[in-house]
Design brief:
Shape: elongated
Distance between the termini: 100 Å
Number of strands: 12
Radius of gyration: 33 Å
CATH class of the largest domain: Alpha Beta
CATH topology of the largest domain: Rossmann fold
Protein name: Bacterial transcriptional activator domain-containing protein
Helix content: 55-70%
Pfam families: BTAD
GO molecular function, one term: DNA binding
Organism: Ktedonosporobacter rubrisoli
CATH superfamily of the largest domain: P-loop containing nucleotide triphosphate hydrolases
Number of helices: 22
Domain Bacterial transcriptional activator: 326-470
Length: 477
């Protein structure tokens, strides 16, 4: 009974989610393909998971009332008997209002099957896709006058099956004029489509056409009530959903994988991921990756992790839209705008963006992570933050905001006590404020730190400033 329900779902029209974005431009395109031009034999809808392929097709069929025979493929459909039986069943289920068609399809099933128990079929017939196609096409041409579609969804599940490849290619060669074949897949199907392409009988919708626009993402987020996703990588790494920190990741590496993919703005191959996150493992690293991806999708959403041909990518901007916030991204944007303003000698604009960047830096990037992959990024962002405080100190000095300038140098020295430029800048601030004693003590603190940490003396510039201070003290000026 459970198997029958499962099989029925495979050939039933998908139920649209309650939150469905109206994608009118794409619906218009489908309308043109289906109605305005009967020259197309094949509609290819290919894009990674999360692009709304099935929802778009189901929405169009529901709105237009266009008859479509659905068949949702899975890996078990590589079985020849099951594939043929369900393919015929999908025609029968959708076009049940045509009694002569149903009668002919039942007769065909009787010829193919040696018993009524699925999936036992006559091997002499089931191994002959050409013969099956000839019988099927003859039935469709005889009994179906209206235009209709056959949708093979999740085709990537059976893409490498030679029998199905032969079946589909033969079907396309002999497809009745009133029929449109739709293939929905996460990857391009392994089919010989050259003859159809030459005759312009193929229409394709790819990821560029199916990608959600910012307005559609905002509408989808509103309809689904998607939570706000906020990720903090500076300091203690934390992921917030609806302002609540995620404390239970099920497996610790799911969190590591999240930040690893977030750090890469391009798809990463599974071998590289395993080598970076599980360098000590061998065979078990593949299972660890699959488990981590499973839990990461459970936490952030199924469409959060895009997989394609062994490559993985985190696509949170596309999923959450303007409800996604990431401190590192915002830090980089603010820092870039500040540098552009500095090149234009616009201190006012630069200062605003530098302050924004400085507030985002709560500590070193992923400070509690000890993985090798994040060391270089940590160093890069640390240098950017040091430059941020440095530029803030210089702008404050030019503005004659001495107390503010001193505060920025103090922030820098808290991060790197051996930064001689920080000690020099702070000494100058103390002198401008008339605090010569503080300036002298700052030099002594600098000298002691450099000796203890690096066993070196302060540089010539610092020594020269200290010398002038001591001489002035001796002369009483």
């Amino acid at each position: 009974m459970r198997q029958n329900i499962s099989l029925l779902k495979q050939i039933s029209r998908p139920v649209l989610p309650s939150a469905t974005v109206l994608r009118q431009e794409l619906l218009n395109v489908l309308n043109d393909v289906v109605y305005a031009s009967s020259c197309y034999k094949l509609l290819l809808v290919c894009a990674p998971e999360g692009y709304g392929k099935t929802t778009l097709l189901a929405d169009f069929m529901q709105r237009s009332g266009f008859p479509c025979c659905w068949y949702f493929l899975d890996q078990a459909d590589t079985n020849k008997s099951k594939f043929i039986s369900l393919f015929i069943a999908s025609l029968r289920a959708t076009l049940a209002h045509l009694p002569l068609l149903v009668q002919s399809l039942d007769s065909l099933v009787a010829q193919l099957c040696t018993s009524r128990d699925f999936p036992s079929c006559n091997p002499s017939l089931i191994d002959d896709p050409e013969g099956i196609i000839e019988l099927l096409v003859g039935i469709m041409e005889t009994h179906i006058e209206e235009r209709f579609a056959i949708a093979l969804c999740n085709y990537h599940e059976v893409n490498t099956t030679s029998f199905i490849k032969q079946f589909v290619e033969r079907l396309l060669q002999h497809l009745p004029a009133q029929c449109l074949l739709i293939i929905e897949s996460r990857s391009s199907p392994d089919l010989n489509l050259a003859p159809l392409l030459a005759r312009r009988e193929v229409f394709g919708l790819g990821s560029s056409a199916l990608r959600f626009s910012p307005q559609e993402i905002e509408q989808l987020a509103h309809l689904q009530g998607l939570p706000t996703l906020r990720i903090q990588a500076f300091g203690e790494p934390t992921v917030f959903l609806q302002d609540q920190p995620i404390k239970r990741w099920r497996v610790s590496h799911a969190m590591s994988l999240c930040f690893f993919l977030l750090d890469h703005t391009y798809p990463v191959h599974k071998e590289q991921i395993c080598a970076e996150l599980w360098p000590e493992k061998d065979v078990s690293s593949g299972q660890a990756l699959r488990t981590s991806i499973y839990y990461l999708r459970k936490i952030l959403g199924e469409a959060a992790v895009i997989s394609r041909s062994g490559f993985y990518e985190l696509d949170l901007h596309n999923l959450y839209g303007d409800k996604f916030w990431y401190d590192v991204d915002n830090f980089k944007k603010a820092y870039k705008r500040a540098k552009e303003a500095l090149r234009s000698e616009d201190d006012k604009t630069a200062y605003k963006h530098l302050i924004e960047a400085s507030k985002l830096y709560r500590g070193d990037y992923l400070q509690s992570f000890y993985d090798n992959w994040c060391i270089e990024r940590r160093h890069e962002l640390r240098l950017a933050y040091i430059d941020t405080r440095h530029q803030l100190a210089l702008i404050s000095w030019r503005r004659k905001e001495i107390e503010e300038c001193a505060r920025h140098w103090q922030h820098l020295l808290a991060l790197d006590p051996c930064l001689e430029e920080g000690h020099y800048g702070l000494m100058r601030c103390y002198l401008r404020q008339g605090k010569r004693g503080l300036a002298l003590r700052q030099y002594q603190r600098c000298a002691a730190t450099l000796q203890e940490e690096m066993e070196i003396l302060p540089g010539p510039e610092l020594q020269s400033l200290y010398k002038r201070l001591t001489e002035q003290s001796r002369l009483g000026t």
